[in-house]
């Protein structure tokens, strides 16, 4: 189950609707698992007020959950994206706490739980994805105590001092504890969750276990809270980047940029968590001080459109585009732009070509669950070249220690890292990239889904009432 289904509805010129698999990594990871198990995917179709009967697509049963315009406003844009998202990303932006948002979040979570309860066979495994559905595990357990329930949180889980702001903190904790396994990106996230459980419920914890006492007719249970760092389809990405036409496209991109000595790249959803303004500030200052020149360096910034109906995202877009315009106006020349700014989506082939064309990838997130862009860049670089500048506030930095790690709030530190990356000798670049590639190859996305599902399956043995499977 996930908020969004793994398929997009496309309507052609004649008005005929069809379905297309969405390109995300989660779909790639779970597709083989779903096919092998004859599984169903429960989620929203991506358009409001669309009631669609379940159907089969590419070997996966699709169970649409309808959402109205007002569900989207209150449950999705409100509670999910304007309360939980900023709160879980360390209150970089002020979360809104509105009771009507919360109430609708609970209503929609129940709708998802009921949809899953209705289609799950006896003893089935249900894997719930992400922060939009945190109440689903407990609701589902109540409806269907026979199910094996997993939950994975794709975004960070904050420290208790922050989490405790949430007026509905106890309900969220209880919701998640309905799962047999609660998965997080980082060890620190799992620790924050366990601490919140101790503080709010007083249940005993011994990493990775949480002992939930029996209540009424509910038996005592043992929940596992653990890190399962997500990854990408490494082989798929390598294959893409190895294609001659993709490599030719990478050369073309550099050529079109005026063949600068250094191409730097940023790829982010246009989101305040990604630290795009910090990156622009550092780059602008380097140009202003003459430490960099547009004759030698170009920054390509892909800012993917995101949450455009939310006011704070509209403001951020204005701020970023104003800054880009200023930097280009102040330092660009007729033949050399300081920043090539792109506000749209690209096919995967084009993304791979961009990674190949980039000498430096800049990831300056202020907080990020994992950051798959960093892993994609590394997977694409079979030539063992390219420098990754990576924020220590990303989940990816736990694994990718051979990157140039930065604190994005420290603008001078970011500037020094950029200069260091540009000047880094080939043998140092190779050494670092080799080490990064080794780490990424060790943990690809099928390893992630397999290890989560194995832990979930094994957890059944530790449960009391339905133990032994
Ligand atoms: P996101 O915040 O969306 O994901 P990220 O992990 O970087 O961030 O994934 C973005 C994905 O979108 C990448 O696969 C990237 O290639 C793709 N993408 C970005 N811009 C694109 C564009 N313009 N065109 C085409 N593709 C584009 C959330 C969490 C992360 C966590 C993931 C997975 O916020 O921390 O890593 O989920 O769990």
Automatic annotation (TrEMBL):
GO MF term set: alpha,alpha-trehalose-phosphate synthase (UDP-forming) activity
Gene3D superfamilies the UniProt entry points to: Glycogen Phosphorylase B
Pfam families xref list: Glyco_transf_20
Any one GO BP annotation for this protein: trehalose biosynthetic process
Protein family: Belongs to the glycosyltransferase 20 family.
PANTHER family listed in its UniProt record: BCDNA.GH08860 (PTHR10788:SF106), TREHALOSE-6-PHOSPHATE SYNTHASE (PTHR10788)
The protein, known as: Trehalose-6-phosphate synthase
